[in-house]
Amino acid sequence: MSICIKDQIQNMNLVIGCTVGCPYCYARNNTRRYHIIDDFEKPQFFQGKLRMMEKKKPQNFLLTGMSDLSGWHEEWREEVFKKIAENPQHQFLFLTKRPDLLSFETNLDNAWFGVTVTRKSELWRIDALRSNVRAKHYHVTFEPLFDDPGKVDLTGIDWIVVGTMTGAKSRTVKTDSGWVYSLTEQAHELNIPVFWKEDLVPIMGEEMIQEMPDAFNKVLEEQRIWNNQKSK
Ligand code: SF4
């Protein structure tokens, strides 16, 4: 049985909009379909949503579900980091495809910075992340995986996620199980937890590997305790 990553890590879309231009971007399609903002290529900061971070019940949050960290203005980032520091009960994840545009340092304990890698030619993003974002926690999302990334330098990476193409294009783009096993073995050699996204079930079968970092598991355990107390 597989678990859905969206049940473990919730989206908090503080910024909507992105200029990276991925052809498969669901955020751009949804933004246009539901007219969430006027122009997806001009990211907007929804400052009022920062209040969501004040809730005491711990949660794992992805803050870049409809944006890319490289498109955030520096003052937005600083305001968000300040709020993250004030709310250590949560864990916060960021993703970017353009780590070459970033340059900052943070000592936040509960912030995780990651890059998306979809093919071998994008492995440079992992090096750029480690050198341009000087932080305590790193992760890499290999999704959708279009080719074999081969040997990957995962030094200093704390978590990897692997996924495949979803939606209409999933009929033509297939992730190979061998690529997934290879990444998993390389990560496990370094004791890095690996999470196969639920979309991989048709490729990998029901025996899924779905590991999370201890800090995320702790949040989920505290959530369960919180929910049990509430139901009494
Ligand atoms: S980086 Fe993310 S938000 Fe930006 S276009 Fe690509 S998929 Fe969409």
Summarize the structure.
The chain has seven helices and eleven strands.
Protein described:
- With 232 residues, this protein is of the alpha/beta class.
- It has a single domain, classed as TIM Barrel (Alpha-Beta Barrel), CATH 3.20.20.
- The protein is built from seven helices and eleven strands.
- It has a seven-stranded parallel beta sheet with strand order 1-4-5-7-9-10-11. The chain has a two-stranded antiparallel sheet with strand order 2-3.
- Helix 5 links the parallel strand 10 and strand 11.
- The longest helix has 18 residues.
- The protein is globular and about 45 Å long.
- Iron/sulfur cluster binds next to helix 2.
- This is Radical SAM mobile pair protein A.
- It comes from Treponema rectale.
Largest sheet: 7 strands, parallel
Mean pLDDT rating: 95
Helix share bin? 25-40%
Low-confidence regions: none
What's the structural domain tally? 1
**End-to-end distance:** 29 Å
Based on secondary structure, the structural category is alpha/beta
How would the global form be characterised? globular
Strand order of the largest sheet: 1-4-5-7-9-10-11
Distinct ligands? iron/sulfur cluster
Rg? 17 Å
Defining key terms:
232 residues, TIM Barrel, seven-stranded parallel β-sheet, two-stranded antiparallel ribbon, 11 strands, 30% helix, globular, binds iron/sulfur cluster
